[in-house]
Amino acid sequence: MLRDLSKFETFLSSLSRVSGLRLEIRDREGRLLLPSAPACADREPAGLEALSARVVEAGRYQGTSIRGSGSASGVPIRCGDRVVGALIATGREVEPEGMEAFLEHTVGLMTENISCHQEVEDITEELSRSFEDLHLYARIGTQIKTLKFSDAMLKALMEEIMDSMRADLAFAELPERRIHNVRVAKPHMSDRITDPDGLVDMLVASIPADAPSLQENYFILNHSEEQAAFRRLYPEPYRFLAVKVVHDAQEYGWLGLFSVNLRKIFRQSELRLLTSMAEQVAAIIANTDLYHDLERFVVNMVKSLVHAIEAKDVYTRGHSERVNLYCMMIAEQLGLAEPERETLHWASILHDIGKIGIPEQILNKPGRLTEGEFQSIQDHPTKGYNILAPIEQLSGALPGILHHHERYDGKGYPHGLKAEEIPLAARIIAVADTFDAITSTRAYRPEKSFQEALEIIQEVSGSQLDPELVKLFTRLVVEDMDTDRERMLHRTGTMG
Known about the structure:
This protein is an alpha+beta fold. Helix content is 49%, strand content 14%. The protein contains 17 helices and 10 strands. The strands form 2 sheets. It has a 5-stranded antiparallel beta sheet, with helices on both faces. The protein starts with 8 loop residues before the first helix and ends in a 7-residue tail after the last helix.
């Protein structure tokens, strides 16, 4: 309270001029901290240091006479229950009761001013912290809503929370997903926490099952000495906060903070922020699980569709998987990015899905097709496109499916695209599809060898097929001719 008295210098000087008293503030040892302008003496009266000491010791009003200066009186200045100094007045004679009331009132005004000032500082600090919390929430909360659940996302989130809340360790504990558990600690804690996993496991295991706060999905401990179960977990006193990661009554684990700084406590705003982050993480995990469930559903649906095609066309059994394998070989050599590889993966497996709508007698006809039958065959890319168009997860594969029978010279179908107008995925599928069709037995002809197939696709390079892709694919096949790949590629496998 006595650290910053300069704000009272003008106040005491004005009060001295009005009252005719010399006013001063002294500390517990009697040292002069703040004198007012002298009102009735040119120099400091003797004995005031001793008077101040008596006021501090007694903790109440004290008065005495000062030779040549009239009377001297003092009252204690308190900070809470502790006396930290004294307000001393010297000058003309005043009744003790009146002087005591005057000095007590003066100290009261000063104390109230300091309290108000401290309250303003506290509010300012709280607002500043609240702004930091809101800024963190705005920065992270908006971001993580758009992300799939990932280790990198969770680690970055916990680092942000640890820094914002001035903790020494932050963690995400996910019992059913232990490979995704996160522990991040400040550098200065590396020697003090040698087993972060063990410490976090013990902290979470020690949370009392009957803690009332668990009804609101959190547990808070601002001093480990308060509970024996936590006191023995770490040699230094610490504070601990954990919030459940829960969504629609499904519990996934905990987000938590650990700190050895006991000069601070976990504030309600920090609890609310961590709770909000835990809710966001839980929602992401739930959505990711739903996404994976949907992804598995799509995979199973694709398998069913491919099997349905092969059930209709006995001569193309295993064709879709072999075309997919060839396409993935080409994609690897081209260095395609993961999203493009994923698109090509689905497009190559499903490129003939439109054949579901073609009668079996046409698909398996051993003789020459009529013009109408051939037109029905040419419609299968468009039919495949229309079948899969409502499935959002497969939207990226649609161009490859629709255009895999376009020709490089522009004489293909369904739209007569040419050269670079044809999507890359469709051009890759065209090479793989043509090669596998030649090396497979069909109703209207027997299979040909790899060498014969390579010669044929080289003949149509630049007219039917992309010449650069033909060169690349030819090199791949030639390089693998001596590794028994021909037998391996014609073995019907199971899609993953």
